[in-house]
Amino acid sequence: MFLLNASEVEVSTFLLIGIPGLERAHIWVSIPICLMYLMAILGNCTILFVIRTETSLHEPMYYFLSMLALSDLGLSFSSLPTMLRIFLFNIMGISADACIAQEFFIHGFTDMESSVLLIMSFDRFVAIRSPLRYSSILTSSRVVQIGLAFAIKSILLVLPLPFTLKRLRYCNKHLLSHSYCLHQDVMKLACSDNTVNFYYGLFVALCMMSDSVFIAISYVFILKTVLGIASHGERLKALNTCVSHICAVLIFYVPIITLATMHRFAKHKSPLAMILIADAFLLVPPLMNPIVYCVKTRQIRVKVLEKLCLKSK
């Protein structure tokens, strides 16, 4: 830190927070958090390994599932360092540069996961609408092109965020609101004009939320197609192929929408509730997505059990 004038002090280190009121119990809180991270990493690595080694799973749906697993791993590894530092070692400080780097990766992988969920909704629509042409429409090369296009889109979308934060001046205030760094959180600590950050951050948020709108539109078309199927059994079979994806969408978007609603409309916000929901946003999707797809997708479940030298009954 160095003095700018009599009343301002340049801040070079930010302070993250754990769970308010439970500071003395952080070491015990770290146990379930570490287990959740471990299960998330193992689960997503297992999904990637099974899809990579089983040729019967080399289909568009499972390629997109691989992209979802990669996004979940990126999200886990982005938040892992600060979460462990806080809850295991009670180290709250983080340098400004490290904080800005972390927010880039968190926002990047968040947008990437949102994009993958959108692609998967399109995949389900094509599979139900044109099952006979499914493989010819979504070829392996086309799947790779779509994945790369959306990955590049996510990187380019969040790339300006660290540069806009870097140009700001931080003084006096240095306490963040979460256990990890987010653009809107860091931006509020600036003592210089952050108008550009506010509007570009809003633009990024709207782009991400537009994915949820397009997902909803996709399911309107899916439902319309399913209702046009004559056989009741075939309708249920078609809808059942969407259950895993619907669960993944809810797991991802419910914490985001809840947090945004609380920020916007709650008059008396509970800091504890805000922090728990924010932590759930990064912890729950990477943990639950492999479990949901293993439970609800028979092909994945069978291959995972085979890899574990078990027989599916």
Helix content: over 70%
Basic shape: globular
Mean pLDDT: 86
User: Largest sheet, if any?
Assistant: 2 strands, antiparallel
Q: pLDDT below 50 for ≥5 consecutive residues: which ranges?
A: none
The chain-level structural class is mainly alpha
Rg for CA atoms: 22 Å
Can you give keywords for this protein?
single chain; 313 residues; mainly alpha; two-stranded antiparallel ribbon; 12 helices
What does this structure look like?
The protein has 313 residues and is mainly alpha-helical. The chain is built from 12 helices and 2 strands, in the order βααβαααααααααα. The protein has helices at 26-53, 60-89, 96-129, 134-137, 140-158, 160-166, 183-187, 195-227, 232-240, 243-265, 271-296, 298-307, and strands at residues 13-15, 93-95. The protein has a two-stranded antiparallel sheet. Helix 1 (26-53) packs antiparallel against helix 2, helix 2 runs parallel beside helix 5 and helix 3 packs across helix 10. The longest helix is centred in the middle third of the chain and has 34 residues, at 96-129. It is globular. The model has no long low-confidence stretch (mean pLDDT 86).
List the helices and strands and how they pair.
Layout: E1 13-15, H1 26-53, H2 60-89, E2 93-95, H3 96-129, H4 134-137, H5 140-158, H6 160-166, H7 183-187, H8 195-227, H9 232-240, H10 243-265, H11 271-296, H12 298-307
Antiparallel strand pairs: 1-2
Helix pairs in contact: 1-2, 1-11, 1-12, 2-3, 2-5, 2-11, 3-5, 3-6, 3-8, 3-10, 10-11, 11-12
